Amino acid sequence: MSTLRPDRPDTAGRVHFHDLHPTPADMRAEVLAGLALPQKRLSPKYFYDDAGSRLFDAICELPEYYPTRTEIGILRRHGAAMAARLGRDVLLIELGSGSSLKIRTLLAALEPAIYMPVDISREHLLRSVHDLAAAFPELVIHAVCADYSSALVLPLDDPVSRPLDHWGHQRAAFFPGSSIGNFEPPDAARFLQRVGQVLGAGGRLLIGVDLVKDTRRLEAAYNDAEGVTAAFNLNLLARINRELDADFDLDAFRHDAFFNVEQGRIEMHLVSIRPQQVQVAGRSCDLIEGETIHTESSYKYRVDGFHALAAAAGFSAEQVWTDPDELFSLHCLVRD
Is the pTM value of this prediction over 0.85? Predict the structure, then answer.
């Protein structure tokens, strides 16, 4: 554990940083394995370098992209009720905190004993927690840079941290943005089980879930007119070029996103527009014209279907909030 870098001295002593970021070797192994599959795949967690995080923030402002503004609207209307469900003076864990916009309504109502944002984008996380610390001068923050998608390892039992006496509080978690939709359903159930293990019996999870809706509206959200989502998708290749000594030609790919009705998910792909051979970390990767690299799935749920998934993972549904158009939902789940 270390105190965050001293570019904001007003946060000294209240904000701490735990760097559990995956190593370059982890990324190399995962990228090479994904590109060797018959349907080439890259994990969406690698979207979120600093440039990708900024592009995603821009996506959230687009008129076509309804999830962020809809979820924020639900939080503003029902934040007090959500805070009452989660309980005051908790250790509040936020998974995939990003720019930390959505948490502000909850922080004001909850007044947690400690706030633990978890995100894979290091620089984005550092900026966000400094801003939050300035806005909430009584808040103690333990920021964790980590990949929560494959393992949920948090510094909750770190013997170095235990003398701070932060970890004796009831735990609650916030998982916004419908990121649960990025998991295949069996993986989503396993992820929820891991969250439940961290929270313990009676711990509560407030989770955002995107709902099934008109296909045109769904596809428009991932194919914006300004091309920001396309840039976000292509930035994944730019990151691999930079960090894994690859030579992807970004002009040789186009963005494609569509709703797979049978699977109930949006799929994002990068489509090779010509035959090509790419070098990645010293290995060759061949693509034929029209071949795709699947970069993201975003499953859409019905309320009862998501509650069944949560139940299989050891959670009971306590309350659900939606917007008037039933585009998006927030669920309070309690660990059995």
Answer: yes
| Residue at 42 is within a domain | no
* 295 assigned to some structural domain: no
Distances (CA, A) of 230 to 234, 294, 302, 323: 6, 13, 28, 28
Residue with tokens 């396309």: 230
Please give the helix or strand (H or E) that residue 89 lies within, else none: none
pLDDT band at 45 (very low <50, low <70, confident <90, very high): very high
282 CB burial (10 A radius; 0-12, 13-18, 19+) = exposed
pLDDT in tens, 282-298: 999 999 999 999 999 99
Q: What is the CATH number of the domain that holds 19?
A: 3.40.50.150
Report the distance separating Cα 332 and Cα 86, nearest Å.
8
145 found inside a domain: yes
Q: Which long-range contacts (CB under 8 A, 24 or more apart) does 135-141 make?
A: 135/104, 136/107, 136/108, 137/10, 137/14, 138/111, 139/14, 139/107, 139/112, 139/115, 140/14, 140/15, 140/113, 140/114, 140/115, 140/166, 141/11, 141/14, 141/15, 141/16, 141/114, 141/115, 141/116, 141/117
Q: How many domains does the chain have?
A: 1
162 assigned to some structural domain: yes
Q: Note the pLDDT tens digit of each residue in 87-136.
A: 988 999 999 877 777 888 888 888 898 899 998 888 888 888 888 988 89
Distance (Å) of CA 20 to CA 11, 94, 240: 21, 15, 20
* Range 3-31 average pLDDT: 71
Q: Is the pLDDT of residue 2 over 80?
A: no
- Report the alpha-carbon distance of residue 57 to residue 69 in Å, rounded: 12
Using CA atoms, how far apart are residues 90 and 169, in angstroms rounded to an integer? 6
Amino acid in position 107:
L
Structural domain boundaries, residue 142: 2-24+58-213+300-335
Polymer length in residues for the chain = 336
Q: Please, what is the Cα angle at 185 between 183 and 190, to 5 degrees?
A: 80
